[in-house]
Amino acid sequence: MTTSSDVIDDAPEADGDTPLPSATLGGERKRSIEQITLLLFITVPFLAVLAAVPLAWGWGVSWLDLGLLVFFYYLGCHGITIGFHRYFTHGSFKAKRPLRIALAIAGSMAVEGPLVRWVADHRKHHKFSDAEGDPHSPWRFGETVPALMKGLWWAHIGWMFDEEQTPQEKYAPDLIKDSALRTISRQFLLWAGLSLALPALIGGLVTMSWWGAFTGFFWGSLVRVALLHHVTWSINSICHAVGKRPFKSRDRSGNVWWLAVLSCGESWHNLHHAEPTSARHGVERWQVDSSARLIRWFEKFGWAYDVRWPSRSRIDSRRIKAGKDAPREAETAEAA
Ligand SMILES: [Zn+2]
Ligand SMILES: [Zn+2]
Question: Where is the composition biased (Acidic residues) (predicted)?
């Protein structure tokens, strides 16, 4: 037993993994202040969404507020999907230094937790997807309807409050080695604060009024964060419970078309688990994947290189052949 437990006295042991490091990278400790902060980050924006509909009816929504909502939504969303997910977690392309830093900051502005923790959790999710050890499988409690309801709640939100921590040194040593990324990850609250403050600042300056600052904050910060949270979490919950499964993967990931635009292309989740390092998730011509489109532009500008675009033959080799591989999986869940 190491003495690290003296340093982080309330940190649990993680399922026989390496002990937690004593130096915090942001997000190692979830009890106390961080648990409360997390709870606030989750509930306050959500309450704003509940209030949004009647308020929009009464106040009307200005084009400025709508613009702030859409701009900051897609900034954070692509920061997560292109940055935290496809680049930092899976290495589906290489990035020049300025792009690497910009993606780390843009992803932090999605208010989904520090970079290193996000990546560690997600790598663990792929290692154990829908099996014992997956931090957020909706199948955790079984396959009956009540168990799946409980599991969906767990995969969507509950897992974030779990005392069990993904050991960051074990799952994200490559990021920890980079001092700039380590710093950005540690400064998570700063980036989250900036992300919440900017819409208010812009709203106030453009209208030159406190009311403009308030509505900018309401729509551009609170409603935007809530929407992005629930869309991101839906990839963990909905996209592991329903959706089409045309590709071979050892889990229950599905392609959910109606989340494609809002999730910046991440809801083509079955392909993603079948081919995790692919820079494109929506591999069919009609499958919207704005993240892949942006990576393409980054590549043209010379900011991204060695992009792992999947070849047609590679994709076809991952398809489930009728009557052969796991037909049960292929036929289920036409819900999407
Ligand atoms: Zn998944
Ligand atoms: Zn992934």
Answer: 7-16
